[in-house]
Amino acid sequence: QVQLVESGGGLVQTGGSLRLSCAASGRTFSRNAMGWFRQAPVKEREFVAGISGGGGIIRHANSVLGRFTISRDNAKNTVYLQMNSLKPEDTAVYYCAADGTIGLRVGSTASDYDYWGQGTQVTVSS
Predict the structure, then answer these.
(1) What percent of the chain has pLDDT over 70?
(2) 71: exposed, middle or buried (C-beta count within 10 Å: 0-12, 13-18, 19+)?
């Protein structure tokens, strides 16, 4: 059974930093894209960042470009999201996702991913 477990969320002031982690178990994703999405209250889930299996292809949403960085450690089957210069509009539940298909595609829509974590809350106070 595949499980994705996020950690690292919390409450931080504007301008602060957080590092989210997502540990996968049940199968290896070293040849699969993984990504981060977020969903704020009364808003749709939106793409934040994605990374290919080998880490050579990385995509970030324009809203987080230059502030957030996605990375992965395949030896630990874990993907990370380093978030700097946080803003109140970054407040959301952050979800980790994994593409079940092996390949170089790094999708930016929820339908591109097959496995999801339970989410971790990030709250940025002004």
Answers:
(1) 100
(2) middle
Rounded to the nearest 10 degrees, how much is the dihedral formed by the CA atoms of 37, 41, 44, 50?
-10
> Residues with Cβ < 8 Å from 2, sequence gap 6 or more?
24, 25, 26, 27, 98, 115
- Where are the extended beta strands (E) located within the chain? 3-7, 10-13, 18-25, 34-39, 46-51, 58-60, 68-73, 78-83, 92-98, 115-116, 120-125
DSSP for residue 117 = -
Q: What is the CA radius of gyration of the chain?
A: 13
Q: How far apart are CA 103 and CA 98, in angstroms?
A: 12
CA distances from 100 to 7, 12, 35, 53, 107 (A): 21, 33, 12, 11, 12
- Chain segment 39-57, per-residue pLDDT in tens: 999 999 999 999 999 999 9
